[in-house]
Amino acid sequence: MPSPDTTAQSADLARYSVTPTDIQSVQKQINNTNCDDRMVRQYIQATGGDLKAAAKRLQATLEWRAQVHPELMTCTACQQLPKSHYMHLVGYDLLSRPVIYSCLEMVTNRSIDDNRRHMISTFEQCIQAMPEGVGQWVWVSDFKGFGMSDCDPRLAKVFLDLSAAHYPERLGLFLVIDAPWIFNTLWRAIAPIVDPHTKKKIRFLP
């Protein structure tokens, strides 16, 4: 597995200098006393230091988590048919970040709702598996077997929307491997809506 760019990782963590005062300010604006500093910091970084926007987005996530309980979510599609999806936590990189591996060739279920549920379940497993001091994961996406039927930008949008809304600053690195030429069709469709900071975390490998 390719090693992550540790320089990019360090630069990413230093993107915004979040102070204890910033964190306290956001915590005072939300209706939750159990929100840890790391989570608050991620939302401040995601909003470029806009404390009001960070508090608003964080509050929305806290309400979502209270209603949905993503930490308890399982993939019902995989329970019924284990080969429905192939996106799993497989280990750790050299920075102790959880590593997700997904392979399109082994996916049989392409339902947007089912894939969203599986994605949430996998993200939550990564969070629970993070060692102390680690707040991001690495995603290795194997595009072997990618074809015309996979050129639906909706699933990519699910990931982008989900990450922005409820898992900001969690993605440390996204490795795309073995993408065929037809992948360019999908990339052209989603590239305009990919956050520039997220784009910097994407690496295309042969």
CATH evolutionary superfamily: CRAL-TRIO lipid binding domain
Low-confidence regions: 1-14
The CATH class designation is Alpha Beta
Number of self-contained structural domains: 1
Which class best fits the helix and strand makeup?
A: alpha/beta
Give the % helix: 40-55%
Give the overall shape, derived from the CA principal axes: globular
Compute the gyration radius: what is it? 17 Å
Determine the mean pLDDT: 89
Q: Into which percentage range does the β-strand content fall?
A: 5-15%
CATH architecture: 3-Layer(aba) Sandwich
Order of helices and strands: HHHHHEEHEHEHHE
Largest sheet: 5 strands, mixed
Total number of beta strands: 5
Q: Tell me the strand order in the biggest sheet.
A: 1-2-3-4-5
**CATH fold call:** Phosphatidylinositol Transfer Protein Sec14p
Q: Enumerate how many helices there are, as a single number.
A: 9
Terminal CA distance reads: 12 Å
